[in-house]
Write a structure and sequence with these properties.
Blueprint lengths: L8 E7 L6 H6 L5 E8 L6 H8 L5 E5 L5 H13 L6 E4 L11 H9 L5 E5 L4 H4 L4 H18 L12 E4 H4 L13 H11 L4 E5 L13 H26 L4 H30 L5 H27 L7 H8 L3
Helix pairs in contact: 6-9, 8-9, 10-11
Amino acid sequence: MNTTSNPRIAVVIPCFRVSAQILGVIERIGPEVGWILVVDDACPEHTGDVVEQRCCDPRVTVLRHPQNLGVGGAVMTGYLAAQSLPAEAVVKLDGDGQMDPALISRLANPLLQGRADYVKGNRFYRVADVSGMPTVRLLGNGVLSFLTKLSSGYWQLFDPTNGFTAIHRSLLTELNFERIAKRYFFESDLLYHLNQLRAVVAEMPMSASYADEPSSLRPMRMVVPFLRGNIRNFCRRLIYSYFLRGFSAASMELLIGFPLLLFGLVFGAWHWWGSVVRHAPATAGTVMLAALPIILGTQFLLSWLNFDVAAEPRYPVHPALDDRLRGK
């Protein structure tokens, strides 16, 4: 593949039903990008053929899937190809034109400057940007964002379904792509896996674009599938981070707080229902026996939450990974 002068950025573009937009997206990618990997995810519009026949950009390479794997599967195919490139930052850019290629340099800068391992766009950072977003999408993303904070451990992040991302190439060798979700849960699931690597994740404020090509993601419809995936990742994160890889005061707070809260809720609900059926008020001792575990359990869990928020990764891991790859 031909490159521009001293390129440091590669771009992965997953393609499905974007044959009308893809050429315009590629034309807007600036010279700071040395490699453009177009992944045709078994597109019924044959986007890969359109690019090969009508695009003359020497930076472009077309990769194809024999069957549709979803956006996550297409991105990971691009990531696997990018591992063999000398690029430092690998940017994921959608082919539908909703992401501005002019922001690629800005998105990749925290990686190139050594300040982060992964950067993602955030359409909620500025109030002016949020005001133009559809209400259903705004509410749906709010719910999905909270679930992702809980499951990933990145409490300062928002807008988890934003697919405009950049990752340092050295981290790609550490990720187990077979265990990462291949469809719309990809971005959220990737954050969980990055947390397990203790990677630093940063955000870039950006404006959303809703033109004639609306996103196929419907946040409100995805709440239930995302809830299932995030609960699974949350449980895995608690086990790996607080009981297998380490044990701390926060681990004890979990062990004590959750059973106390659960006991208080179950015991209180049981006796409340019994008092309703019998038309007899519960005794003061019964009320205290239910209330005290709830109060103590809540305090223990709030203390754990404070620890978890403070434990968010602060130091990029890619410099150490780079040294290891160089054999130092």
